[in-house]
Amino acid sequence: MSLFNKMLASIGIGAAKVDTNLVSERIALGGEVKGVVQIIGGSVEQTIDEIYLSLYSTYTVEVNDQKTTRQALIEKWKIVEPFTIGVNEKKEIPFSFKLPLDTPISVGKTRVWLHTGLDIKNAIDPADEDYIRIEPTPVMNAVLAAMEGIGFRLREAECEEAPLPLRRRLPFVQEFEYVPKGGMFRGKLDEVEVIFLPKSEQETEVLMQIDRRARGLGSFWAEALDLDESIVRFQATNADIPHLREKLSTLIQRYC
Q: Distances from the Cα of 163 to the Cαs of 35, 95, 133, 167, in angstroms?
């Protein structure tokens, strides 16, 4: 019977199960992800070689004018050394780790989740997935609010494959695409794209691509050669928050 149970467990029947419970499913960038991994033993004793937590997101890649979706591993943590789980035994393993600053925030099409996996030799590895809501740092949130405040509307937010000059640790960047809905920029700009490159919880580099509305006889060639686009980089810190609305307005006006 024991041998039969082991054979069943090797294909996932009667094997150990895993469930992750987070203290909170809303986490700010740079904040602590805390929770407990609960393992419940199956019908046979099993050796757990590893428990790992992996943070994932999706991003789009354009191939031959077609968009496809890929998964990206943001970070992976091993939270325990090998141990044995007995028949129907319950174990709870607490964990805590800092959320990477380059994790995309939860807005638009962006989804981020935590994958919990048990590594068991000669068996199908049990797993659990939990979606989490990622919130921006205060300075990032202030930049987004300032864009709305000066007359822009967020049209789309999406993680896309990063061009080589912008590629860092991850294969993608998160882009926030704004269009003017009113005010001084309506009729002058097509869109403004914003990318954050956080340095700390208090500071971020902001990359903006300002797409002017091409006018006149040369408009066709301006758009064809991307001459109607300007790329701007600047630093924003918590100290800038009270003045970000004015700062962004003045900056964007230079490229209208």
A: 35, 35, 26, 6
Long-range contacts of 211-217 (CB under 8 A, 24+ apart): 212/188, 212/255, 212/256, 213/187, 213/188, 213/189
95-145 pLDDT tens trace = 999 999 999 999 988 899 999 888 755 444 456 889 999 999 999 999 999
* Alpha carbon separation from 123 to 48, 80, 82, 118, 126 (Å, rounded): 10, 19, 15, 10, 9
What percent of the chain lies above the pLDDT cut of 70?
84
Clarify whether residues 32 and 91 are in a common domain. Answer: yes
215 in helix, strand or coil?
coil
CA angle 154, 158, 163 (to 5 degrees): 120
Write down which residue in 81, 107, 135 finishes a domain.
135
Q: What's the rounded mean pLDDT across residues 174-197?
A: 90
d(CA 135, CA 241) in angstroms, rounded, equals: 17
73, 143 Cβ separation under 8 angstroms = no
Q: Tens of pLDDT along 41-72?
A: 877 778 888 888 999 999 999 888 788 999 99
Q: Are 20 and 191 in contact (CB under 8 A)?
A: no
What's the whole-number mean pLDDT along residues 10-16?
48
Claim to verify: residue 156 and residue 84 sit in the same structural domain: no
Question: For a pLDDT cut of 90, what percent of the chain falls above it?
Answer: 52
| Domain range for 98 | 2-135
As a whole number of Å, the end-to-end CA separation of the chain is 78
